[in-house]
Target: RNA methyltransferase
Amino acid sequence: MLEIPAQFKEKFAQLLGEDEAARLFKALDEPSKKAFRVNSLKKGAAVSYDLSRPVPGIPNAYYGEISGKDVEWTSGTVYSQDPAAMFPAHLTDVAPGDRVLDLCAAPGGKSTALGEKLQGQGLLVANEISPSRAKILRENLERWGVTNALVTNGSSEDLSSKFPAFFDEILVDAPCSGEGMFRKSEDAIKYWSEDNVLTCQARQQEILQEAVKMLKPGGQLVYSTCTFSPEEDEAIVSWLIDNYGFTVEERDLEGVPTAAGRPEWGNGNPELARCFRFWPQDGLGEGQFVAVLRLPAASNAASGEKPAKRKQDKRKKRGGRREDQISREDLEYVTEALQGLSLPAGLENWSSRLQKSKDHVFVPLLAPDSLRGLKILSNGMELGMLKKKRFEPSHQLAEALGQIKQDRVVDLDEGQYERYLHGESLQTASQLKGFVLVASKGQVFSFGKLTTSGQLKNFYPKGLRQ
Ligand SMILES: C[S@@+](CC[C@H](N)C(=O)[O-])C[C@H]1O[C@@H](n2cnc3c(N)ncnc32)[C@H](O)[C@@H]1O
Model:
């Protein structure tokens, strides 16, 4: 039995009425619902999990539990996610070519879905304020094969100063009191208090204030929480409507067990009924609140379309060439390492767009000069690293290449796969030489390097080894 705080129970008995509240409390004592998404970017990957129980309303999503050890996971073919938490990204209008911001993005469940919707075209800025969580966000986007993400580690203020009125769509999946996570996390129960609900509400307003500055006039804001408290849900949407003139967009989720937002829990505006409330007692998954909002086209929240104000670049030049530019010799090393590999869409003409930062070679999404002052974990695609007179392709590239059929692949059996994940080198019968993609069950999850005797040197990143 979960020890649900008495104050929480009293509050929801009043808000919902005794009968509905009893259904909620009963559901909170049942096990949480597990589900996963299958990555549409990695076309043709064979998934060994049971796909017979789809999550209603979400393409490529299924009930069931996955393991972080399977190649389906290490190759970014599947991602574990609460079914209700799939809806915020699903309900956005994000389409290939858009400029999208996921402001509170770690660990990346919703960013991976937004990256899928973009299909490598346009820009996804995925931001997270906590450094350790931002690292996990980067790893998850890498695994998912997203080639057009800028991963940042900053506050909402850090970002709003760089991107005024810049984005077509912004997702704010806000830090919240986590009442919808009671079944999944003991901490959510332990740290629950009415004071914390109000602290979260104030933080949500601070974050949203900055988010609005970054939205283009006429742009879309999707606001979500994993909590039930009206203070963090309908009251926040009311505040957005009253202060910025947002309208709530209608969405049809026919066949999905969800409930409408409650106007009486906010400012009484009937549009609040267009918000979605996912309650555990309705059977889809955990608790979630989602509002799809539109900023009026003639907004005075911010103006100007330029990304960031660029400072004069005063960095040293060496022999007429800037330090971040790549030499002809370096380019030859990169070209040689990439020979025989098929590159995914979005990486065409990579050689003319290459940049270098501390020997990391990458195809940037945004000009690094324009991002000065922001903590960047990843800017587009890192192809790899220049070492002394050679080039080592990156793990991010391996995961991105796994999207399309490749010829230079060594496929490991189950035992070999486990040893490779540990960091071991393996003896193979492969006739290939040099850098190869390493797969198991046809799913690419790493680079490796084959010697002339068929030894496969391990390039699975040390930080990911199991
Ligand atoms: C609900 S979680 C995000 C989950 C994520 N969207 C996903 O789908 O995987 C909220 C995140 O917001 C971050 N956060 C907290 N305060 C923030 C702030 N002021 N600005 C940006 N992010 C913040 C938290 O560290 C946390 O990772």
User: Anything to note?
Assistant: Residues 85, 103-110, 128-130, 133, 155-156, 173, 175, 207 surround S-adenosylmethionine (CB under 6 Å). The chain is about 25% helix and 25% strand.
